[in-house]
Amino acid sequence: MAFKFQINKQLRFNHRADLLKKADANRPLIHHQTVNGQALVKLTKDSTKLEKISAKKVGTMDDLANKKLTRDGKVIIDFGQHIVGQFKIHIAHTGSPMDSPLAFKIRFAEMPNELAHQASEYDGWLSKAWIQEETLHLDQLPVDLELPRRYSFRYVEIDVIDSSPKWQAVFSNPQAIAQSAVDRPTVSAPQLKDPLLKQIYQVGINTLHDCMQDVFEDGPKRDRRLWLGDLRLQALANYATFNNTKLVKRCLYLFGAMTTDDGRISANVFTNQGYVPDDTFMYDYSLFFISTLDDLLQHEDDPEILHDLYPIAKKQWSYIQSYIGKDGQVETDENYPVFVDWSNEFDKTSCGQAITIYALRQLIDLADRASDPDIATYRQQLQQLINYARTQLFDADKGFFISGVKKEINIATQVWMVLAHVLDDEANRQLMQQTVDQLFPVKGIATPYMYHHVTQALFEAGLNDEAIKLMKSYWGKMCQLGADTYWEAFEPEKPDFSPYGSPIVNSYCHAWSCTPVYLLKKYC
Amino acid sequence: MAFKFQINKQLRFNHRADLLKKADANRPLIHHQTVNGQALVKLTKDSTKLEKISAKKVGTMDDLANKKLTRDGKVIIDFGQHIVGQFKIHIAHTGSPMDSPLAFKIRFAEMPNELAHQASEYDGWLSKAWIQEETLHLDQLPVDLELPRRYSFRYVEIDVIDSSPKWQAVFSNPQAIAQSAVDRPTVSAPQLKDPLLKQIYQVGINTLHDCMQDVFEDGPKRDRRLWLGDLRLQALANYATFNNTKLVKRCLYLFGAMTTDDGRISANVFTNQGYVPDDTFMYDYSLFFISTLDDLLQHEDDPEILHDLYPIAKKQWSYIQSYIGKDGQVETDENYPVFVDWSNEFDKTSCGQAITIYALRQLIDLADRASDPDIATYRQQLQQLINYARTQLFDADKGFFISGVKKEINIATQVWMVLAHVLDDEANRQLMQQTVDQLFPVKGIATPYMYHHVTQALFEAGLNDEAIKLMKSYWGKMCQLGADTYWEAFEPEKPDFSPYGSPIVNSYCHAWSCTPVYLLKKYC
């Protein structure tokens, strides 16, 4: 799975003060909750868990307070749940006077298997700076140590580098200050009888909760920013659960306020130090600005945001015109790639066509709300795009949509054609049934993001049993492997695989994977 | 060189509020001076320097500000002088938006050779926590980073763990905030014509300056506390240079205020978090409380401190009575060891005898100042101790003092007998001349502390040329090897030797080595 970093230094971005002001006005109040350390654990072999490693309880917090740690002394504290927030702990010393500083390493892990890997082993393309570990020197004890940075974790490993031969360190009262833009108790879960579905739902809630911060974050461990494609799914999951529409509006205003001077919306925005749009652009993500705005307005009418952001949604559409041929064929290039999934093992050309249709349907809804006379043109274009798909991309003999010059038949293409409703409902059902029969089991799809679309296409085509089966085998599998929150990347056929070369930089709480909470509420 | 940590948990210490208040009243105002980074350097082979490594200039601070550093990028900043203090630097980023934290390691070194060693190699008995390195993660740039801890350094190595493929870190304007209880310009150096002696003197001044902090510190890198034996030498060097007698008084009050409930003075006191006496005791160090008090009063009369601390000085004397036999023989044991030097390669029994005589002479001076009638007893004891030394420890045939059951003849014994003036001046001269002729070159002595006493004994016996020769070959050798300040331990016959297994924990600025400034002023 190659990934090409986009570096576009020459870009100029608008910073529309009026829209940024509205983004600020929708800034959430962050809720804080203190969580006490629950247990001391150690890593053990467990063939049922991720990387065959689980955390076994070996002591209590009282046991921790009774431990005298010196050179190479180590403990792992389990907080019993996934947390995004800060960490604090009381540290004292016992023995002779403190004739040296205390030095220790502290590592934060979302999953037990991360602790089986060392930072020194990692040499992948993602920044090593994301590895959640610190080395601390304390010149004075006792201290109530409160680390200034935010971490994403359930497990905290403390590894004493050294005290001195004359004294030992005593750690006690570890606490996490968990934070989120939303309160967990406000959610009313659907009535699910199946215990695995119940668990799938709950882990989804945990994931969404922990990613809802000052914006909808992608992954609180490592990708602490707002991505547009991910925002779309998080917003849908949010409407079905916490229903914090202000946070969605804030995010839409942020994207809308900072387009390039040629009108494009950046694929993501940094918000931890001012508001900074990234110099990365993706064709499908830009179009999902239209979708996300329309999804919001379908959920909650808001003439103000329609007035403010519809022109920007239109602009996305007008920008992509150069990629649409006269016959209605969509052809993107590598400067404006179609993402669809982390995997590059399948051809994405026809996904681009379908996503264009999917977004245009929502643009037409927005145009209708805005009483925009351009709606007629949009409707014409929609027909043209659909016609091209039906006549040029559908292989009637095989009963599948094809993609690219090699006329590849892949799952993603069928899925997006179904979601775009290029065919009628009965044809959609047939297409997905045939996809299940001939193309399943799913292989070579790397992300819950794409698995979401496969599952939704099954629901959308009326194949609810197949949808539930897939959900159980995918999100359920993560649960069985020990997930407290869902992961950025997961291929059930190779569960230990990391796209980055080491699980130490994997994101095991990633927003785009939380969608079972949306799908279960909408379709079950 | 073995070292046995003393751990005496059951001890009770007095904390005399009246004396601690006087220690506080003499607390120095710390002077701060901003020092800019001078050059970028790299390590090069240089057979004339310590561990055959020197630092070669490869750039300016402007070059630093123009460097774009990313994964594994490294620079070494040279401040051009040894500094005790804090470090600050401006860090910005260049390139795309900062899509990851910046992680880097920062190492502080007093000497270039330290940077050729890695913390991971070190497994000695001294705490690893002393190793001067930090690993930092910065979530936001630009920043004016000011590290909260104090370091002892000339060189600062910055080693970028990672930025990201999209941006680079830019470091600029490195500054040190040097601190000391004294101002360097207040010292008037003696007129020395010999350039090597001039350099020896200047490096001594630098050493003393950097060790004069909130107390006389032993070594600002790693042994940041007040040791009594070292205080004695620092105080003498201080009278000959900065002449800050308040700091000496503060230190004497600290020792005097916190004796054990049986009256002993601890060998050292921690002062960085309240005042805490260590549970380590050394026979000679306790007696040097008497010496240091008497040295002070010989330099500056002060009836108040005499009144306050003479009773505590007397108490040290009375405590050691159990170690003095009826015939005047001193025999200590391992519970109250005689230090003399880091080296355990020579017998220290007769050094104990001589140091007892040395201290008793100064106790008699104090008794005289205090008009204490016990002076008569002290004078009797002095004769007895001297008689024992002259009759039982001096081998008239060989013309040397012997030590221990094996009647060992070693340099340290002759030296301390001369310093204690057990023989008359002419006999002292003969003894030291014979020591030079038969026992030199000095071998197996590990510290400048003991070399100081050897050199002083040569001066005291009138062998000034030999004293200067030794000073040049010892302190001069450190200068030639690249010392900016003098070292805790140095054996010229094996210059690269570290008592701790790695130079990474060596202290290259250590108070007890600064005494050429005292000897050159007193004897030249």
Structural description of this entry:
Two copies of one chain form a homodimer. The two termini of chain A are 34 Å apart. Chain A is globular and about 85 Å long. The first copy, chain A, is an alpha+beta fold and 524 residues long. In chain A, the strands form three sheets. In chain A, strands 1, 2, 3, 4, 5, 6, 7, 8 and 9 form a nine-stranded antiparallel β-sheet that branches. In chain A, strands 10-11-12 form a three-stranded antiparallel β-sheet. Chain A has a two-stranded antiparallel ribbon with strand order 13-14. Chain A has helices spanning 17-25, 61-66, 195-211, 228-239, 245-257, 283-299, 303-319, 349-369, 375-393, 411-419, 425-439, 448-460, 464-480, 516-523; strands at 31-36, 39-45, 53-59, 74-95, 102-109, 133-138, 143-146, 151-162, 167-180, 226-227, 268-270, 276-277, 394-395, 400-401. In chain A, a hairpin with a 5-residue loop joins strand 11 (268-270) and strand 12 (276-277). In chain A, helix 4 (228-239) crosses helix 14 and helix 6 packs parallel to helix 8 (349-369). The model of chain A has no long low-confidence stretch (mean pLDDT 95). Chain A is built from 14 helices and 14 strands. Chain A binds chain B through residues 5, 7-9, 71, 95-103, 125-131, 134-135, 137, 139-141, 149, 161-166, 225, 270, 272-273, 276-279, and chain B through 5, 7-9, 71, 95-103, 125-131, 134-135, 137, 139-140, 149, 161-166, 225, 270, 272-273, 276-279.
